[in-house]
Task: inverse folding
């Protein structure tokens, strides 16, 4: 594990681990103990690389990483239809072992790609993730999820609520919170009323409104406009109020989702960008939910864990 | 009333009635019987006219209308902060008489502007409309809303659910449905997956999903992506499915809102663009709600009714 020592691990093994997303590729050189020896980040995400450009993008990353002949593993959108090769989704529940046995090699390279996960809700409707499964595996050792459920939330453009238990990642649900915020802020009448500013009280006011509202998001959103029109919300507070409305709606809906899974939701873990996790933690506090930040560099940890299960490095514990 | 005869009305009266919105200005010359003698429509909406440009815009409309010295009345965004002059909102409940007594003249013109309405929900949070109040008044004569409640829905960028009763427009709630559809379709990952096409079954599928989902809109929206990814939704059906999700969410939330007002919601009236009303009626049919289309040219009818109450034309009935 990064930052920790792994007894019994062969000291000759090492790994190139790549968290290859939509906008950014982040590559890590991990030493034989799974510690991060070096990291590079480049704007070489899947959306930024033209078709056929992935071999050159990888070469650029590896050169910056001063890599040797170590095995290579990548997670994220690099395995999507818009990525290098399309790696089929693995069905939930899935754990480090089942994910490790479903790695897909990229032809003519020594790169293996981690599959994304697919689950279906009670109505049979699918939900998907790519990359988050690796971060979740990096957040907890097997022993930490044995005999109990943990709720792990990964805030972002498409926020993921996941239940982790004995079978690994048991199920999950996606909320479009970040994308809704971006399109409303940039392209809607609500965004046109907003002026730059931060307002913690407005964020919490938005959260409370959504928690109290019987989940009428498309109605509640309009209050960002009317409160500004009637001078009950300052222009510099509109952005954080809007953010609070969307976070509150996600929180209320996520809590109902957990109830349907019969999983207690008083305590959750957050993985992701620290500033965004801090924002989520504030929203959860309004609802009386205890949100614990997960470890940093969860993707690198998760890739190391999967690589160990795949026998690419060291020994399987 | 347009299209009907009004006994006792002075035949010398006539009115210029303008429905002056965000993108379009629609001006009507009404004869002494309240019938539409002539109509012009121009892209001279509030957003299209520069500050100080309203006198010229009005002159252009009047010229096209071949108007005489008749009184003039306008409703809509022309009375907003971005319009010609800002007309304060009138508090709900409001009827034709109270609205008529709150008309605001534009200095140096013979134009009177109809105030928009403001209501507050149980938590004190405000909601607003400008223009819709006039369309609602145009849809029903006093006798039609006496001793009973009518639910009137005006689909659009900002869809309005209104309760009309003995006191006129009793209360209302806005849903951002049209704007959410536009920003998601044009600027989100959901829109990027959509291809042109119409699919009535997909619309109804989206409505059903939202009705069944415990109102988790930001989660349900993501299903437009996952169903497309797993080939369970054709690219040409994504747009109508997304529309159905948003309509279903509005319908479910609107129904809960009516329950809180203790107003029965099995039957509603729709006012607005015929194609959009037809789409709403299909969504309502999925929920077993009977949706009746309102009269055409409701704004002209409403302006006539307000003008009569204000003594601008004919006699107050």
Result:
């Amino acid at each position: 594990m990064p930052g920790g020592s792994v007894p019994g691990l062969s000291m000759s093994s090492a790994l190139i681990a790549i968290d290859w997303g939509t906008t950014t590729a982040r590559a890590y050189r991990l030493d034989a103990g799974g510690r991060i020896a070096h990291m590079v980040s480049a704007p070489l995400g899947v959306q930024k690389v033209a078709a056929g450009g992935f071999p050159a993008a990888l070469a650029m990353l590896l050169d910056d990483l001063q890599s040797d002949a170590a095995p290579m593993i990548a997670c994220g959108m690099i395995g999507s239809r818009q990525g290098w090769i399309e790696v089929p989704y693995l069905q939930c529940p899935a754990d480090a072992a089942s994910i490790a046995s479903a790695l897909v090699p990229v032809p003519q390279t020594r790169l293996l790609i981690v599959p994304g996960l697919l689950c279906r809700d009670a109505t049979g409707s699918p939900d998907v993730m790519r990359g988050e499964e690796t971060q979740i595996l990096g957040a907890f050792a097997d022993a930490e999820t044995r005999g109990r459920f943990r709720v792990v939330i990964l805030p972002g453009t498409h926020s993921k609520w996941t239940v982790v238990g004995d079978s690994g990642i048991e199920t999950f649900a996606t909320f479009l919170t970040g994308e809704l915020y971006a399109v409303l802020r940039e392209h809607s009448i609500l965004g046109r009323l907003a002026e730059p500013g931060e307002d913690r009280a407005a964020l919490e006011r938005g959260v409370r409104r959504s928690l109290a509202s019987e989940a009428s998001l498309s109605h509640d959103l309009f209050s960002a406009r009317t409160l500004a029109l009637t001078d009950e919300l300052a222009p510099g507070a509109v952005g954080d109020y809007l953010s609070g409305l969307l976070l509150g709606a996600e929180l209320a809906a996520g809590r109902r989702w957990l109830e349907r899974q019969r999983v207690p939701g008083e305590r959750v873990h957050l993985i992701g960008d620290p500033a965004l996790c801090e924002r989520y933690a504030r929203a959860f506090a309004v609802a009386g939910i205890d949100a614990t930040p997960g470890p940093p560099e969860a993707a690198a940890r998760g890739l190391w864990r999967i690589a160990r299960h795949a026998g690419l490095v060291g020994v399987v514990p």
